[in-house]
């Protein structure tokens, strides 16, 4: 049985419950552990699965089109 919430790939049920399982340091000093991964460099390679490749392409295309639309709006220019 999985603890993952349907529709959420990385979130478990425990993360959304009211209880926190983290133990706070007794001395209350700042910890050096990072909370997020930040931007992770991805290796550029061909995605072998055609369906995953098409999905990735359409998501990237949508993001680029959105950015170009915003840029065109700000500059008053047109794009195709």
UniProtKB/TrEMBL annotation:
SMART domains: MADS. GO terms for molecular function: DNA binding; protein dimerization activity. Keywords: DNA-binding, Nucleus, Transcription, Transcription regulation. Pfam families: SRF-TF. This is MADS-box domain-containing protein. It comes from Oikopleura dioica. Its main location: nucleus. InterPro entries: TF_MADSbox, TF_MADSbox_sf. It is found in: Nucleus. Signal peptide: none annotated. PROSITE patterns: MADS_BOX_2. Gene3D superfamilies: Transcription factor, MADS-box. One of its GO terms (biological process) is positive regulation of DNA-templated transcription. The lineage of its organism: Eukaryota, Metazoa, Chordata, Tunicata, Appendicularia. GO terms for cellular component: nucleus. It comes from the Eukaryota. Residues 16-37 are annotated as: Disordered. SUPFAM superfamilies: SRF-like. Residues 37-80 form the MADS-box domain. Residues 16-35 have a biased composition (Basic and acidic residues).
């Amino acid at each position: 049985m999985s603890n993952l919430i349907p529709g959420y790939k990385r979130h478990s049920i425990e993360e959304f419950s009211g209880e926190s399982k983290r133990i706070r340091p007794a001395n209350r000093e700042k910890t050096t552990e990072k909370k997020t991964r930040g931007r992770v460099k991805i290796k550029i390679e061909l995605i072998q699965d055609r369906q995953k490749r098409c999905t990735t392409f359409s998501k990237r295309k949508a993001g680029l089109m959105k950015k170009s639309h915003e840029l065109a709006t700000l500059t008053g220019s047109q794009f195709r």
